[in-house]
C-alpha cells in the first residue's frame, strides 16, 4: 500500500519541481521554442532529402551514360551507403 504524502510534502515537492523547471528553462534560454526548432529541423530534412534525391538522379544518369551500374559509380567516386 502507498504511504500517504502530506499536503506539506506535496507543496514542498511542487516547489522543488518548479525550481527545477525554472533552472532548466534558464539553461536552455528564454527564447527557445521547441515547436520552432522542430519545424526548422523538418524543413532542413526536406531540403536535404531533395538534394539527395537530385544527386541520385544524376548518379543514375551518369551510370546510364557510362553503361555501368549505380553501385560502380558510387565506388568510382568514393561514395558509401551513408552518403
Tell me about this structure.
With 83 residues, the protein is an all-alpha fold. It has a domain at 34-83. The chain is 73% helix and 0% strand. The protein contains 3 helices and no strands. The protein has helices spanning 7-28, 34-65, 70-76. α2 (34-65) packs across α3 (70-76). The longest helix is centred in the middle third of the chain and has 32 residues, at 34-65. The chain is rod-shaped and about 80 Å long. The model has no long low-confidence stretch (mean pLDDT 89). Belongs to the SWI5/SAE3 family. InterPro entries: DNA-repair_Swi5. Keywords: DNA damage, DNA repair. One of its GO terms (cellular component) is Swi5-Sfr1 complex. It comes from Pholiota conissans.
Secondary structure layout plus pairing:
Blueprint: H1 7-28, H2 34-65, H3 70-76
Helix pairs in contact: 2-3
Family: Belongs to the SWI5/SAE3 family.
Protein name: Swi5-domain-containing protein
Keywords: DNA damage, DNA repair
Order of helices and strands: HHH
Shape: rod-shaped
Structural class determined from secondary elements = mainly alpha
Q: Residue-averaged pLDDT, rounded?
A: 89
Helix % is: over 70%
* Major sheet summary line: none
Termini distance?
56 Å
Low-confidence segments = none
Beta content comes to: under 5%
What is the CA-atom radius of gyration, in angstroms?
Answer: 27 Å
How many helix segments? 3
Oligomer: single chain
Number of strands: 0
InterPro entries: DNA-repair_Swi5
Family: Belongs to the SWI5/SAE3 family.
Protein name: Swi5-domain-containing protein
Keywords: DNA damage, DNA repair
